[in-house]
Specification:
The complex is a heterodimer of chains A (311) and B (219). Chain A is 40% helix and 14% strand. Classes of the chains: A alpha/beta (311), B mainly alpha (219).
């Protein structure tokens, strides 16, 4: 059985992370005061540690101006941070999600835990800059941690802008994204030829195409990997949740299907962070449970795939 | 690929209706006036009704879609564009070219048109409330697309001679899109839009066939 990739007691974590932060010239804000049990992964380009389970905001945080629905998302985000989460991923494509995340952050004291990850999704340099400035305004969290070119839209233009922004310290990392298994060839060409820190694509227990090329390529290039659709937008629960969780799931600490699916994803050695999305506190609690305890090793991962394929 | 849930839509409608009140009441009176103008013809009635219909489409397009719904749906400006186009077509056909006259009689097309129009005015909202939504959480005539489209289809059935097909493309296409969205979001009231579109087509086909049969009998 594989042991957790990173389990430090709080003091050791803070001293090692703090020491690294001083060495790398990072501000104390970037030292994550995560729960000591939370599994973290290193961002290859800097060694910065981030929790392996983050949070997406597609649909779930797109609630417009409704104060009632926004306040419920405050509870979801608070639970996320309380349970050791850090990366929050969003995009201008997600309607009001960025703005709603900003609303939630304003009402929570612990925004220092935030690892902000959003995207630029438009054509042209001027529109891209305007969109990214909107993101800065919505989240008011200092420099954005990660800015990604969403679905490779006008990537040639935006990667140039992002490089300038990174040099000016307006963002700390650059990334590119795709999803639903689309454009993997184009994506691989860009990720292997352009100076990016992060790549984001889809990977889950059914959609495992990324194991063939993208995950190994990311490892070869030293890129951090964010995984979207780890539950296939709820499809995995529709397909499998009526079946019993196998007893041996407890061997790697999966108490429910959400943790079963997430631990499969984050146990891949090339994955840095998975970003499931939810609008419910109880689901957030389940999701963050996957960031604790042991992870399945290679043999167990194979067994997990065989089990779901048999259902 | 919808970026929102029905929960968000209903919360959106609650805020939207609150922001626009009392436009709903004014719109309802204007809608009733349109039907009276078709029943008891007024001078330049065709132009007046066409201009009012155009106004309803402009409101749904520029206010509902472009100004408000765009906050949660990145495709809302596209819908706004089509609604503005429909308004322009109504102005061009019915106001500038004076190519539309409306009246209500006892014929099948007329009765069907009146029923559809009345449904757009009030029936859609009633169905939504019966589906479990509060009155504030439903689309209202002239300031939101579903009842506006249904009402328009009804009024187009009152056109004499028949409304040009160009005026029916956007409303009918919208009912198909609305039905798809309703299916994904499980919002039963929006299936009424699909039913209205199908009913419109059925009436047109049936009355055309009946008219052809009459022609054959007369020759």
């Amino acid at each position: 059985m594989r042991t957790p990739l990173h389990l430090l007691d709080r003091r050791a974590f803070l001293s090692s992370a703090g020491g690294f932060a001083l060495a790398a010239g990072l501000s104390p804000r970037h030292v994550l005061a995560a729960s000591p049990q939370v599994i973290t992964r290193a961002i290859p380009s800097t060694g910065e540690q981030i929790p392996a389970v983050g949070m997406g905001t597609w649909i779930t945080f797109n609630v417009g101006s409704s104060a009632k629905l926004r306040d419920r998302r405050v509870d979801v985000l608070k639970t996320f941070f309380d349970l050791g989460g850090a990366m929050v991923d969003s995009s201008p494509m997600y309607g009001s999600s960025e703005e709603v995340v900003g609303y939630c952050l304003e009402r929570l004291d612990n925004d220092q835990k935030l690892f902000s990850a959003t995207k630029v999704w438009t054509v042209s340099e001027a529109r891209g800059i305007a969109q990214m400035e909107d993101s800065e305004r919505f989240w008011k969290a200092g420099p954005l941690d990660l800015m990604q070119v969403h679905n490779l839209l006008d990537w040639e233009t935006h990667l140039k802008t992002l490089a300038e922004w990174k040099a000016a310290k307006r963002i700390r990392y650059i990334g590119i994204t795709t999803s639903h298994g689309r454009r993997h060839e184009d994506f691989e060409a860009v990720m292997t030829s352009q100076p990016v820190d992060f790549v984001q694509f889809t990977y889950n227990m059914i959609d495992r195409e990324a194991e063939q090329r993208l995950l190994p390529a990311a490892a070869d290039r030293g890129l951090a990997v964010i995984i979207n659709r780890p539950f296939r937008r709820g499809d995995l629960f529709d397909k499998f949740a009526d079946h019993p969780l196998p007893e041996w799931a407890s061997e790697f600490g999966a108490a429910n299907w959400a943790q079963f699916f997430l631990k499969f994803v984050i146990s891949h050695p090339s994955v840095t962070c998975a970003i499931p999305a939810t609008s419910r506190v109880e689901h957030m609690t389940q999701n963050m449970g996957a960031a604790n305890g042991p992870l399945p090793d290679r043999a167990m991962r194979k067994r997990m795939v065989q089990y779901v394929e048999s259902l | 690929m919808l970026s929102y849930t029905s929960e968000t839509v209903y919360a959106f409608l609650e805020g939207y209706n609150d922001a626009l009140w009392p436009a709903q009441a004014i719109a309802l009176l204007l809608g009733i006036f349109v039907l009276f103008a078709a029943l008891a013809p007024i001078p330049q009635g065709g132009r007046v009704i066409s201009a009012m219909l155009a106004g309803f489409w402009l409101c749904s397009g520029l206010v509902y879609y472009a100004q408000y719904f765009a906050e949660i749906d990145f495709s809302a400006p596209v819908f706004a564009g089509f609604f503005v186009l429909q308004a322009a077509l109504l102005v061009w056909t019915g106001v500038l070219r004076s190519g539309l006259e409306f009246h209500i009689d006892r014929g099948t097309r007329s009765i069907a048109g009146l029923v559809l129009a009345a449904f757009g005015l009030a029936g859609y909202t009633l169905i939504a409330c019966l589906s479990g939504q509060s009155a504030q959480e439903v689309q209202m005539f002239a300031i939101a697309p579903a009842p506006t489209v249904i009402f328009t289809l009804g009024v187009l059935l009152l056109a004499e001679p028949r409304a040009p097909w160009i005026l029916t493309i956007i409303p009918l296409a919208w009912t198909a899109v609305a039905g798809t969205i309703a299916w994904f979001l499980e919002m039963p009231e929006d299936f009424c839009a699909v039913i209205a579109g199908v009913a419109y087509l059925a009436v047109i086909v049936w009355t055309r066939a009946a008219g052809n049969a009459q022609l054959i009998r007369n020759t």
